[in-house]
Amino acid sequence: MSNPSIMFYHDGRHPLIYMYEPPMQRKEYEAAVDELVGTPVEALMFCMGDGRTVLHDTQVGELWGDNVDKWDHIIFRRAHQNAKALIKTGNDPLTIVCERAHEKGMKVYPTLLMAQGTGNRESDNRGSDWRFNNTHLEIGASADIDENFPGHRNLDFKHKEVRQERIALMKETFEKYDIDGFEMQLNYFPVYFHPNEIKDGISIMNEFVAEVYDLLKSTGRNRELAIRVPGSVTGSLSRGLDVATWINDGTADVIIGQTYGNPELIDPMADFTDFVNLAKGKDCRIHAALQSHLDSDRLSEAPIEMIRATASNYWRQGIDGLYLAHWFNNWPYEADFYEKLREVAHPDIMETKDKFYSIATSTGRYTVPDLEPGLEMQLPVQMKEGSTANLEIDISDDLELWDKTGRVHQVILRIRIGETTELDEYEFILNGNRLSEKELRKLNRMYVMSAPRYRRTGYWYIFTLDKEHWPVDGKNYLTINMKKRDDGVIPLPQVLDTELEIKYLMGKNYHRDYVDVELGPYESKTDQ
């Protein structure tokens, strides 16, 4: 099989071992593969467990929950029950996945969470005895580290014992299982060194990655090492992850850049071109992590229009493939899930399909989303009279080209501003052109009694753009000037959401479903 272009991350837990009542059957476990058969997914990136403990038959690591007598988390207990029962009947969970995937023509790359903080023995049901007994190896063991430091309970990779423990688990996986590659997940709570020891940590991590690479290749098969990292080269380096050296030295086959990895939010504006430029002329592929979770007040998961927009933006940057991260949130998988999968590998097919671009923002669950190092959020932006918000919107639609064939139906720009009133005045400028009020529909959502998911209020400023104000293929610049502020209120307004929706026709003068047809009171869609 060729090198996979579309990789699918399965955490091995939420839509699988958590869901089935013990004792779980082999056929039920095979669903991790079966649910993806017939899609463009070429490689299943299958998580091995918690990172500290695993959910397969290990002899060098520790099985999730083997050290727990009384459980305070019943779903974590179920994972242990199911894994234990499968192993007892001779059905090693990781072996099941490898065998089923190969039977169905799919590759398998086990995924190890390389960094994971730990808690107290009494309450941390997923922790390992090795971690509980070696707190002196944690970054927080240093006297000058505040307990609120994000990596306080992470292992410090400067210690040889830490690296050896990780190596032993990976080596066992390489030698015992019929795998096609392996993923080092380095973007999961990515803190590996004391913040004052990053420079020395870079060389340590370079040697560590090279050792893993050599071990994997020494198994005598053409197996790939994939490494997931924060979504920028400089951000990764700030944590001791020297992606440039791995690419230049040939110690990584695939680099996976990821933004908003912890809240798992879709990010249509992510930029992976620095990774792409590093890999030019090198024997290393660049994959972009595309999440499915939206977490807006209207939708939990991103609709197909947003998946198209995001995938199209990523492909145009010159990436080699997509890494579909956390799509298991869509489980149980239904028709819309498979429709997204069907198109995502084909930017040419998505060219004249509806797209929905948005800028990542705060959400109901993530009021301040965690960010990878080196990244900043464009939204929200606080406003006051005389202030300006400058936003960048990247799109992958050549509207001028498709308008020549009559395919463009509508282009809509939406901006939501919270804590604003009907007396406030704004000016909106797109690519240097002031948007006219003739194109504007103002939508009063200052107060809502209920919402599909959580209440998010404010005024929507909705522009149906004419051709003179259409966005361009590539980067677009939106400027919002606050000209006048209602002096009767104290809270400052915030630009909360920015959305750009592009709608296409199937052909010149083609209809957009029954809403474009004047139906009589007894006519239906099927009467057309």
Short description:
With 528 residues, this protein is of the alpha/beta class.
Tags for this model:
Jelly Rolls; globular; alpha/beta; 15 helices; disordered C terminus; 528 residues; 6-stranded antiparallel beta sheet; single chain; TIM Barrel; 8-stranded parallel β-barrel
| Count of discrete structural domains | 2
**Uncertain spans, ≥5 residues at pLDDT below 50?**
519-528
Tell me the overall shape: globular
CATH domain class of the largest domain? Alpha Beta
Q: Give the termini separation.
A: 47 Å
- Strand line-up of the largest beta sheet: 1-2-3-4-5-6-7-8
How are the secondary structure elements laid out?
Layout: E1 6-10, H1 13-17, H2 26-29, H3 31-34, E2 43-47, H4 74-88, H5 93-103, E3 107-113, H6 129-132, H7 160-176, E4 181-185, H8 198-217, E5 224-230, H9 233-237, H10 243-249, E6 254-258, H11 273-279, E7 285-291, H12 304-316, E8 321-325, H13 335-344, H14 347-350, E9 355-358, E10 381-382, E11 388-395, H15 399-403, E12 408-418, E13 425-430, E14 433-434, E15 440-445, E16 458-464, E17 474-484, E18 494-504
Parallel strand pairs: 1-2, 1-8, 2-3, 3-4, 4-5, 5-6, 6-7, 7-8
Antiparallel strand pairs: 9-18, 10-18, 11-17, 12-16, 12-18, 13-14, 13-17, 15-16
